[in-house]
Specification:
globular; 11 helices; 14 strands; alpha/beta; 3-stranded antiparallel sheet
Length: 325
Amino acid sequence: MCRLQVRAESWPIAGRFVISRGAKTQAQIVLVEISEGDFVGRGECVPYARYGETIEGTLERIESLRPDLERGMTRDALQSVPPGAARNALDCALWDLEAKRAGRRVWELAGLPAPGPVTTAYTLSLDSPEAMAAEAKVHGHRPILKMKLGGGGDLDRVRAVHAGAPRARLIVDANEAWTAALYAELAPALSGLGVELIEQPLPAGDDEALRSLRRPVPVCADESCHDSVTLGGLAGKYDAVNVKLDKTGGLTEALRVVETAKAMGLGIMVGCMVATSLSMAPAHLVAQAARWVDLDGPLLLAKDREPGLDYSGSSIAPPSAALWG
């Protein structure tokens, strides 16, 4: 028999985290622990309002599965639950529990090579060009910066950040805030400003224009890409996909998304929500196959879980067994 424990937690953000949809000062997460005897598996998720998720709804969804989980529900059986934050926390907790019971690491159970360090982007919140330039100078030593954009004034923001951190590779993330006309205006100028990826410029569900627009910089699907079922509709519109475990519903489906996307010729980005190292640890395995890695969530917090991932600048070492997996 297994035992399920689940609770909501709030982790303070260092300052504010701002995107086109709004700002927040706390990372609200749900923590799951599934225990069997002396072994405890843990998983963490971030419910996202953009997809109709709430902390309360996620807790209720997990609680509804308590009888099945405590009778020994397997990861395979869990995949019948719709993807999203709740399934992510449970899936990752079950992976962790399996590894601890077997005395092996998750990557061994998954048949993956032992992971190495990865280099993460560091995210600059949406702000005025002057404020974003100042923040870029502070983090100009980092190899990759990801900029949150919001529509009007975005070209000035990119120019300011590029001037503030001229050696950094840049990812720009509009979070669905652009129109097709604005994309057509901005995209040609971005390639000369160090930008190597444009993330979700148009609203999901209203991105058909990307089929006929030039893509001088690769375009990455985020809100338009969830699990492997959604990949078929992306061909011809996107060059890459952002794999986030809170969207795929856990590591199990994330690995399937990576395999399918690569077979389609799509580039791989691994992303995250603002959360602790427990959320990043499973994604670190997915990041082994990614060209772009955005697992900076703990760097944006005022404090992290202990033990956490080992960040050395922008390099992230593989997770310890004490953290996850």
